[in-house]
Design a protein that fits this description.
It is built from five helices and two strands, in the order ααββααα. By secondary structure, the chain is an all-alpha fold.
Length: about 170
Amino acid sequence: MGMNRLRTAIPAALAFFVVAACEPAAEPVDVYVPPSGDATRGKEVFLKYGCYNCHSIPGVELPERTVEPPMVFALGGRIHSVRGYGDLITSVMWPDHTVSPKFVGALKAAGEDPTEVQMPDFTDVMTVSEMVDLVEFLDAQYSRLLGTQYRGKGWRPRGRLQNVGED
């Protein structure tokens, strides 16, 4: 397959998975191998879209919040719903797939309507490259913070590690 076809195929495949992931009745995909991203650019995406306003990352210097959310989520904190790379990709592409009861309670206590104050959906504004880079950055953070509790990009069933698509 030529480079031009490959450059067209990758975004088309990711777009397919984004649309497929948005269906409430969607079944989990066993294996999805995303293109490699760039964690440094991913941090820039994290800043560009203001993710730091609601998410903190221990050990990573971030700007001061420009808004005060009812609750700040620390990546890799004591309670976390992202346990693997698949959870991470799903959380970024489909933020409403699961909502923490603790978050709903905090919103209600703050007098907010939980159905109106949730993570924005960036699928219409974020490019595929930005999304891939963001996930690369977040995967590195979860791997660093959670260690073996997190099944990152290189994890495969039965304990085999593979760097798919890398030399």
